[in-house]
Amino acid sequence: MADADGNTSKALGDQGISLVGFITALATSLVVFGIQVGLFLLLRNKLARIFKPKTYLVPERERTEPPSSSPWGLLLSLFRLRDREIINKCGLDSYFFLRYLQTMLIIFIPMATVIIPILVPINYVDGRSHDFSTNGTNSTSGDESAAKDSQGSPITGLDTLAWGNVKDENHRRYWAHLVLAVLVVIWVCGVIFSELKVYIKVRQDWLTTAEHRLRASATTVLVSGIPDKWLSDEALRGLFDVFPGGIRNVWLTRDLTHLLDKIKKRNEIHQQLEAAQTELIRMAKKKQLEKRAKEEKQSREASRSHRPTKSEKLERQKQEDAAAQQQAEEGQGISSGDQHAVPHDIHDAEDEVQHQKSNADASDADAPLKGVKAGFSKITGGLGKGVDGLFGGAKNITQGIDDQIETTNGFMAIGTSQAAAEPQRSTDRRVRLTDEDDPLRPGTAGSGRRKLSDAEDRVMGSPATRPNQSGNVSVISDEEVLNKESIEMRHIGNTTRKAENLDDMYITEKARWYEFWKPPEGGFASPVPQGYEDKGISFTKKKTLGQTLKGILPFIGGEDITTVEYETAYNDDNAEDRDGTAEWEKWISRSKRPTHRLPNFEWTPGWLPGLPFVNKKVDTIFWCRKELARLNHEIEVDQENPERYPLMKSAFIQFNHQVAAHMACQSVIHHVPKHMAPRVVEISPNDVIWDNMAISWWSEWLRTAITIAIVTGMIILWAIPVGFTGSLSQLNSLIQTFSWLGFLAKNPTVWKVATAVAGVLPAILLALLLWLVPVIMDLLAGFKGAKTGTQKNEAVQQFYFAFLFVQVFLIVSLASSVSNILEGVLGQPTSIVDTLAKKLPTAANYFFSYMILQALSASSGTLLQIGALVDWYIISRIFNNTARNKWTTNTTLPSVKWGSYFPVYTNFACIALVYCVITPIISIFAIITFSLLWVANKYSMLYVNRLSIDTGGVLYPRALNQTFTGLYVMEIALIGLFFLVKDENGKVACTAQAIITIVVAILTALYQLLLNMSFGSLFRYLPITFEDEAVLRDEAFQRAQDHRLGLIDEDGDGAAAYEDSKIPHHTGDGPSDAKGRVAPGNRRGNFNPVRGIANAGAWAVRSGKTTYNQTLGRAERGIRNAAQFRNERRRKDLEAQRAIGEALYGGFHDEIEDLTPEERDVLVQRAFVHSALRARRPTLWIPRDDLGISDDEIRRTRELSEHIWISNEGTALDSKVRVVYGRAPPDFSELDIIQL
Fold it and tell me: What digits encode the pLDDT tens for the residues 987-1042?
């Protein structure tokens, strides 16, 4: 198996690689590196959307100043950027990743300056071989006199600088290797210790900033494994209010898997219907253009006129594109089925809230949820298209964009009214509360509990499971807290239940002699949660044995859900346009309409193609309309009745103080092991994996075991498919093995084709296999039951590093499969030492090439953004046909999956550490590798990638701990190498060195253990010592915010000091408008005095130029005009691209600190409500056409059902029947981008 592995063979073949051979391989990689870097430098100033989108297409606070146009200026800007600015603009994850690369440079640069000058002369001078020029595997294959090491391996090329070149009589030189190895261990351990201290300090600073403490994630804890009797709002509040500040919110989780499945199905049908409607409209428009061209041709033939010239065609296209642009800019169009989930302006929002409040007051107990859902979500759903909204309130972008549709992916800048064109300020935006009397939450410490509506009661838990909640949900304002009399009158803090019968607090039942599992009588009874005695009955209803097993056992389904009879959601009489008056029928036949085949079973994957005579063929539009209406109606009914779904044994608990959340995670909460555990803090609402919230602890344990087994199998058996790809390149061997392939060699043409395929196919398959590994591990981490994206990334980091270290390093180094290695280790455990000692030195040269080639290709590829270029200019032009797809492509920036990104570079570090003493010059390659990767990744983090979710750098400590793996393997290899060293008499000469190395290895393991024991709790949680200082910063921050938002007029010293201490951020138009931009209405700014001078020439001068203008001047003007046209085109392209960023983020900050306390309260109240209960009805966003087809489709959809929201506002078709748009989708919410 290993022989078929290309990497293993390559490692063996590179033994003794000559200097000339290495330089040749390096030169080839340098050529590829130079080409990619050259293309990057050439294109980066022209394609801002690809190479620097973070200069304009992100919120103003995250924008970075455009880099210098010169390469040296770019490098200087990367080196000059401060760490604090990277943290503010890129987040802790990006910062600590770059810091890891920097840490590796800190480790290897001193090692190279110390180890190489000492060990290289020791290894080379008076060594076994001085042969640099030849390749040992070729020239010495038949030369028995060639120099060999103690294991019989030939020594040539770069091996002359390595461990094996020391002669037996010079064995005392190995003391130098030992001393330097010990120094390497001490140095690496010291650097990691310092890095962990810095990590803790930086993370603690980040967690205690006033901006972060405002977020719901800073004060919210996910508690799992809650027993049934504690699974109520009142019980949890009574239990956790012992922590300082008390409880702010409790969100009980429900098993909404059934509802989530409906929502996923709805999203698939919505996308399918949107694409089909767009295709129908475009097909009709193409038919109309074909008919127009045919009629014009007939007209020309009848009149015998010439066909239009190219310039006339271009002029017509320009006019049609201008009309489409104007239509998209003005937001023209009609809409149907809008439930006003997104208010059109702030007045609509106010009217809607008042209307829902009046309905709630006038209806019965079931009405408030519907009112809150339809009204509350209209507020928290965002102001997607209102005045001061996302695109409707964007700045007045009226510059013409000619011929830029492809470059901007169909985006047309919006033309707004003068009133709406004013830049939006954060002080102008207000989010209406659902209740005028909701308490204010000044500062970040928070106010008392807010009284929840009946609707929110039902969202967080069934009324049956939350008795007497109002007694514990009192409203305590900050003014009351500060009032001494109020404090004396109120009991703030821990609350207890009323003990009506004290005898119930003791165990009175006498245990029988055989009941050894029961405690003796007279002890205290098990704690009783608050509200439990009021029920008088069990918290949960009795279940049958079958129901119990179904709810416990994994993979067989959860608890049964009460069935509901839904009303008919559509009018079947208007389902298929049978009246013959549809507009589309004027242009295309019914048989040409989009169709698809239905799967025969619900569980059939959607990507499987339908088969004729097996799967039923249906009209896509007609079928999807009915399904979408049905699902919309059922989902909305289910959202209004969440009590139908069973409660899960977990809850999100939000505290008023951050320190309380961290104390709750570190405390022992329950008196029974594994109950109310684990507890996780710092969870972003957008990072929750709601699909996994319904997984029980039994299922999660079983899934974890299955996942570990699969990953272990992949690590052991992955060499099989890799070896198969290598065997495909050996056609002769395949033909000898499989005689039926002999036909390939009979025909010369077939043989040439087969040879060509065999040269390309293995590389493609190998790349695909390596690409699949992190994808599979990401799926396994989700299958394991990770509750958050952070947990998912941590699991992938562990799995992927183990895979890479074994497959990329151990298998290649040891020239054997994992199964053979395990067999040898199990048979003789000490053999691993000898195996590493014998095999590792021979594979060192392979890793020289591996590291430098990976560094050159990965760094240049990261800069060139090949994937983004292919996606933007090829894939998106082929597949992005709807306005929504184009909008998504335009507004979505590349991201990074840290779980699969970190291990690649950790593996590089481990490989370099393993060989740093055995083959010292690898430190040089490590320095080059990490330097190039640091520059490329820093540019990418600053100007390209945007990470919406930040884990707070939790992957960094694990990466540092994984780096110890390199030290351990180095120590094990040195132990074996020392025992293999023999003197001139053939006796073991370095036993003392080996024993010392064993002691160092044991001390290294103890050091790592103590290091993690000491720092472990600080990796996640905050100490209490930070709380007082954080409160002071909170107060100063709140004063500054109140002054900035206009809530107070005076500017206190604290506010000024806080503002001065902050890194200034961009305001207004951002970096694209940085220097000297003049407002459009400023006449003085548009005045150009040079224009008068230029027109002041005498008539003689003008007449003297006539001859020149008619001859050479015409050609010169042509060249100048062509260059001017290209520059103008590029300028308009950049303006159009930046218009997207200004329209999306102009005047709007997606940070929670930009909101008032009242607005934050509104958002936080719904932060951890299940995503299935917050899902909104999607909009069918179709293009508007001049044939009236889209308008007719909207009318017919309205007649079919009131449960479908369809709109063609802000869209159009250009002269080439491509969809263009000038706004966000109608169902987009600007508040969705706020990080809570």
Answer: 888 899 999 999 999 999 999 999 999 998 899 899 998 888 888 888 888 888 77
Exposed / middle / buried, residue 421 (Cβ in 10 Å: 0-12, 13-18, 19+): middle
HSE of 871 in the Cβ direction (CA atoms, 13 Å)? 15
Copy the structure tokens of residue 646.
């069973």
- CA of 105: how far to CAs of 97, 98, 164, 852, 918, in Å? 13, 11, 27, 15, 19
**Residue 821: how many other CB atoms lie within 10 Å:** 19
Tokens 């000091």 belong to residue: 1057
Question: Is the model's pLDDT at 207 over the cut of 60?
Answer: yes
End-to-end CA distance of the chain: 51
Q: Which amino acid is at 1020?
A: R
Which of 260-269, 325-334, 877-886, 942-951 has the least mean pLDDT? 325-334
DSSP 934-958: HHHHHHHHHHT---S----STHHHH
Q: What is the DSSP letter of 579?
A: T
Output the six-digit token pair for 1167.
Answer: 């932060």
Helix, strand or coil, per DSSP, at residue 1181: strand
Q: How is residue 289 written in tokens?
A: 């253009």
Q: Do residues 934 and 905 touch, judged by C-beta distance below 8 A?
A: no
Rounded Cα gap, residues 880 and 875, in angstroms: 8
Are 696 and 552 spatial neighbours (Cβ–Cβ below 8 Å)?
A: yes
On the question of pLDDT at 818 being above 80, the answer is: no
Q: Is 595 helix (H, G, I), strand (E, B) or coil?
A: strand
Dihedral sign, Cα of residue 35, residue 36, residue 41, residue 47: positive
For the stretch 87-104, pLDDT in tens is: 988 989 999 999 999 999
Q: What are 485-530's pLDDT values in tens digits?
A: 333 333 445 676 666 666 667 777 777 777 777 777 777 777 878 7
Q: Is the Cβ–Cβ distance between 322 and 1183 less than 8 Å?
A: no
Average pLDDT, the chain: 75
In 190-239, the DSSP E strands lie at 220-224
More confident residue, 9 or 898: 898
The SS3 assignment for 251 reads strand
Residues in the chain: 1236
Q: Coil, strand, or helix at residue 569?
A: coil
Nearest 5 degrees, angle CA 30-CA 31-CA 36?
Answer: 95
Residue entry with tokens 């239905």: 598
Question: In this predicted model, what pLDDT tens digit does every residue of 66-82 receive, in sequence order?
Answer: 888 888 888 888 988 88
Distance in angstroms (rounded) separating the CA atoms of residues 1208 and 328:
10
Nearest residue to 800 via CA among 820, 822, 780, 814 = 780
Q: Read off the amino acid at residue 1117.
A: R
What is the gyration radius of the CA atoms in the chain, in angstroms?
A: 35
Lowest mean pLDDT among 750-759, 850-859, 997-1006, 1126-1135: 1126-1135
| Plot region of 613 (φ>0 → left; ψ -120 to 50 → alpha; else → beta) | left
Helix (H) or strand (E) holding 852: helix 844-864
- Does residue 613 sit in helix, strand or coil? coil
